[in-house]
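Marked as duplicate of an earlier ticket. Keeping the data here for the record.
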Amino acid sequence: MNELLPNILTVSTRPFPDQRPGTSGLRKKTKVFQQPHYLANFVQSIFASLEGFEGKTLVVGGDGRFFNREAIQIVIRMAAANGFGKILVGRGGILSTPAASAVIRAEKAFGGIVLSASHNPGGPDADFGIKYNISNGGPAPEKITEAIFAHSRTIQSYKIAEAPDVDLDTLGETRVGGAQVRVIDPVAVYLELMESLFDFPAIARMFHDGFRMTFDAMSAVTGPYAKAIFEDALGAAKGSVLNGEPLPDFGHHHPDPNLVHARHLYDLAMSDAAPDLCAASDGDGDRNLIIGRGQFVTPSDSLAILAANAHLAPGYKNGIAGVARSMPTSRAADRVAEKLRIGMYETPTGWKFFGNLLDAGKVTICGEESAGAGSNHVREKDGLWAVLMWLNILAARKQSVKEIVRAHWAEFGRNYYSRHDYEEVATEGAEALVEALRAKLPSLPGQTFGVLKVEAADDFSYVDPVDGSLSKNQGLRILFKDGSRLVYRLSGTGTAGATLRVYIERYEPDPARHDLETQDALADLIACAEKIAEIRRHTGRDKPSVIT
């Protein structure tokens, strides 16, 4: 073990006014984080919000984006100076978000710091982020994030060890002050966990028999994991993993696995050369994209299908306790839960809201419309877990993705669903839209818009069934008598301006109407969404930036 015995410095600083965490930590432009004291202020505010970590273990890692390595060195020196006894760091500074959760849980760590801006672009002119995860492996709850923000508003100094950089590329141990720093294999714990959940021999036989897949790691964090799992452990053909080397700027990709930024996968899946499965994950590895030959699977449908078929995987063979989804996510999973006679929970957006439900054993599988799904194996959404669950289902059912999706719709009905994003609009206009619409809500029930009649309208609030905590103002909902919905939210995941998200949903039970083009099936609801909220007037936009 190398010895790095530093002095502990107390550095004077001043508060920054903009360090309130969003739905998943603090995200800003990289240059903001590179300002003197900016990152250190926030890290010290995290530690000031915690109690009882003296001598305990902290897990640290990130998605490899620009400034990741420098930030990790700061976190290590500050964690040592503040009294952590052991610091576990992924080799190369790499730990996917779900793998960080897995390591926190496996090592019984006090918590972890994840350096990522998730699906946002990386690079010197792009985005960076940081969040704190608690001992169950999940994102810090609101009471902690609010405490972090409160500390950031009054901070006067931070502690940091004066020490050389730790060699992040070599497995082994180094002592920084009173802390033992151990560089770990970022894949090992996660791979072992996946092998315990899924039927690897059955999936390997499927690949041996000619099954083909293409997985795009988008030059982001999942490349090493995907190669180790799909190509090495399961025997997928070499080259099945595209863009498998994590790069600081994600190879100039936008690492968001949607139909805009991963359009090439959709085009491949719809071509004569289509493999059996196309899939992708995002910057930090917690989102997923699933496309079968000739069949795109919406994240909402994927959640419902995974819940309906989870018992086919060894780790879930006894069934699932319940399902949770974020409020904007389509209600396709609700119909599965009803048939299985298990609990169904509708929560605000943000994976942290699933943590109590998972810890209490009320649910096993959770998901969000923004391409996130996961289970009680960790406390984060998990892109590779979702791909493996699909592979396990395909191996067990011996059907194609398209056949499985069509059979699901025939049994449960189809929820036509789309999200329209208006990105980086003027914050004032977006907030004015929300306030004006909120004021309209009481008058909307009973109004008709074409054939659509409003049944109810509200500003969604959530009472946690485990701890009783209340979360208000979580999205504006307009519910129609035919079961259709419109939901409006301002996103907390961007770094510039505001992003208005509009969620549009219609349920169709008739199998004869399951082949409509989604935007056509939702056309009257899309027009209604504009009319009710006056999107064009408030944002200056006559169409969304992204439609998913």
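See parent ticket for discussion. The chain has a mean pLDDT of 95.
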